[in-house]
Structures are given as structure tokens and as C-alpha cells.
Amino acid sequence: MATSKRRQLRGFDLKQIEGASELIGVDEAGRGALAGPVVAGAVLVTRAFLDGRWATANASRINDSKQLTAAERDALWLDFEALVAEGQIHATFGQADVIEIEQVNILGATKLAMRRALEGIYPPGVFEKPAAEPDLFASPEEIAAFRPQVSCRIIVDGLKLKHFPYPHTGVVKGDGRSLCIAMASIIAKVTRDRLMNDLDAQFPGYSFAQHKGYGTEEHRDAVLRRGRCPQHRELFLRKLLSGQVDPAQMNFLGGEEL
Fold it and tell me: Which residues have C-beta within 8 Å of that of residue 11, sequence separation ≥ 6?
């Protein structure tokens, strides 16, 4: 099973990187939570890395971050730090806070976090000339002849994103299919978990360190008992606090805001 998983993840990325020098996988954590930021991870790999010793030996340890234990994620985080230090991969993260989630909704905030993660690797302009920012001094022929400055492809977990500044391909359930997306999911999950641990110390009584802001029964009871704190997403809690919905159905509210 482990060998099959290793071949599946690496094989997918080896196909995706064909014709390019680099491949970036992107994933998020926290989109369906009731509190805290949404965080995105981005991991850049090369064909040399995918063919190298670490990937061939350790790809079977990689999976969708939700399928791994906290100890397994932390161990892989240390591996990723070493790989970054050796120049074998590039890994970054970006986040959008609760205020931004309220301003642009959770889907907009997720795209904002993903953009920030990607900007830690390359600015969007190196991939293609932004249509919204035409060069007034360039002729139509020059614009048509524009070529990306990097040979890199981007794959994002889920459906293709609308109105996103980076050219990319959406991969449904990509965190279980692509090595670099799965690595990005671990970066996002570990980063967000640590942020939620910090928020637990700032806002005691909600057990953020335990449930990471998701709609567990313990969390719902704490909200009903104590009210919301500044790190709760108002739109996600409105129906619960107004009594319009059974608390047991609270896990489904995140999807309604997309």
C-alpha cells in the first residue's frame, strides 16, 4: 500500500511537471472553521526533487494533512525545513484573518491567503501579463508575444479559482493525489494549528487549542454559553446565536457562506 501511494503521488506530479522546470502545489486549512484565520500553504518542487532520494523514500509518509496525526505532521514539518535549507524545495504560507473573512467572505479570503502564499515564491506578473494592468506603451503585438519569465506550473487543491491572478489548474481531492499539494496541506495545517494554539492563550474558555476553531460540540456549547470572541466569524455564527438552527447542524454552516 505504501509503495502504491508513493508511486501515485510522485507519478501525478511527474506528469504535471512535464514541459516545465518547476511545479507548485497549493492547499488551505481552516476554510470550514467557525473561528480563526484561513491559512494556505504553497510548496515548489522540481523534477530533480521528485526523482531524488527524499521523494522516492518518503512520499508514502505524505498524505492529506487531515489523515495524519499531529506527531506525523510535526515530523514532516522538520523534514520540510531541512529540505528548504538544502534548497531542494521552497515552502511558504499565507493567511487571511477574521476581519478579511468578514469583508470578502470565506472564499475570497481563501483566495487571498493562497495569493499571499504564492507571492512568497513568485509574484504573479512573472507567469503572464495581467490583463487588468495593460502596458500602455506596449503594442498589441508585444503584448501577444509576452512569455512567462519562469517555467513553472501551479496546481491548487479543489476546483479552478475564478478571478485569481495566477494561472493554475484545479485538482479535485488534490491533497490525496499530488505530492506537492499534500505537502502544502501539511504546511497550511501545521501553521494554522500553531496560530490557533496562540489564540487559545489569548481567548481562554473556547478550547481553540483542542478543536482548532472547528464546530465541535464543545466549541458550540462554549459559544452559546460565553458568546463570540473577536476571533469568531460572525457570519458563521449568526444562525446559531439567533436560535435559527439546531447547534448539532452547525458544522454545515461553513459551506453556506461560500
Answer: none
